[in-house]
Design a protein that fits this description.
- This protein has about 230 residues and is mainly alpha-helical.
- It is about 40% helix and about 0% strand.
- A two-stranded antiparallel sheet has the order 1-2.
- The radius of gyration is 20 Å and the shape is elongated.
- The longest helix has 19 residues.
- The protein binds heme C (HEC) (2 copies).
- The site of one heme C has 24 residues, from helix 4, helix 5, helix 7, helix 8 and helix 9.
Length: about 230
């Protein structure tokens, strides 16, 4: 794979720096929460009313404004998707473990239904009794929920742009539109697990509320993707 990506070493620092910059400036919650048409309407009303003649010039956001905000929000979303808590399951053949993303021990494989094979079915270990201090085994949701992400939802090795294009592609993302993607990020137990991973595992560093807010901004801005094909680590 590395030989197909000659620019890898030169693109990572730029990408990392931009992600770091995006993360160090967390979304302003009030603005994000007020998102949607209501905030547009509010801006339009403020712009029309001569209440603050000497104040800053306010104007309704254009499609281009919303799109560029969406691309910034995407940088924050991508940083979450590329976190080991998510990426370890969105893999081709075997799940990975831990922050160092080592191959799963004991070795387990995808199997025909994404749940492993034989005695090594995911749910045998990752079940309702998991995710406690003594078992050291993560788990989430109802029995049988824990499984490898389907082949069409592989994120492993994708650039930020490729990941963005994948996520909004209904032929690959489980036929989800923007609203369904937001819903998944907000309520899916396997996603929520990333913020409560049990044991000594690190949770996803961005607050879950901010992540959902970033998803809403991305969807509102037409799920715009970055132009450049940055390569994530
Ligand atoms: C235990 C394995 C596992 C973990 C951990 C996991 N996922 Fe998934 N993910 C899945 C499976 C299985 C599906 C398919 C489920 C479906 O389509 O309903 C999926 C589907 C998705 C989808 C649907 C669209 C797509 O294109 O992939 C999104 C979005 C998603 N996961 C986000 C996340 C995020 C964000 C995290 C980390 C916070 C995460 N997942 C962690 C297994 C996992
Ligand atoms: C024999 C028991 C067992 C089976 C079967 C099993 N796992 Fe695991 N799994 C574990 C244990 C234990 C850990 C925790 C290891 C650690 O963190 O050191 C783990 C960790 C993981 C993690 C790492 C989470 C993280 O981010 O650190 C993922 C992902 C995972 N398993 C997915 C799967 C999938 C998918 C299957 C089925 C294909 C599966 N496991 C089958 C025992 C099992």
């Amino acid at each position: 794979m590395a030989e197909n990506r000659p620019s890898r070493s030169t693109t990572i620092p730029g990408f990392r720096a931009r992600l770091a910059a995006a993360i160090s400036k967390p979304l302003s919650k009030p603005i994000a929460r007020a998102g949607g048409l209501s905030s547009l309407a509010a801006v339009a009303i403020l712009a029309a009313a001569p209440l603050f003649p000497a104040g800053p010039v306010l104007r309704a956001e254009t499609t281009a404004d919303l799109e560029s905000k969406a691309v910034v929000a995407w940088g924050q979303i991508a940083a979450v998707l590329e976190h080991p808590r998510c990426l370890n399951c969105h893999q081709a053949t075997v799940p990975l473990q831990g922050d160092s993303r080592r191959v799963h021990v004991p070795l387990v494989v995808r199997g025909p239904d994404n749940h492993g094979v034989g005695a090594m079915r995911c749910g045998n270990c990752h079940n309702a009794m998991s995710n406690n201090e003594t078992s050291g085994t993560p788990g989430a949701g109802h029995a049988g929920l824990w499984q490898l992400a389907p082949i069409s939802m592989l994120w492993q090795g994708l650039s930020s742009r490729e990941l963005c294009e994948m996520l909004k592609d209904k032929t690959r993302n489980g036929n989800r539109d923007g609203a369904a993607l937001i819903e998944h990020m907000e309520h899916e137990p396997l996603v929520q697990w990333g913020w409560h991973p049990g044991g000594t595992r690190q949770p996803v560093p961005m607050a879950h509320d901010d992540f959902v807010a970033a998803m809403k901004i991305w969807v509102q801005g037409g799920m715009a993707c970055p132009k450049q094909g940055d390569i994530p680590g």
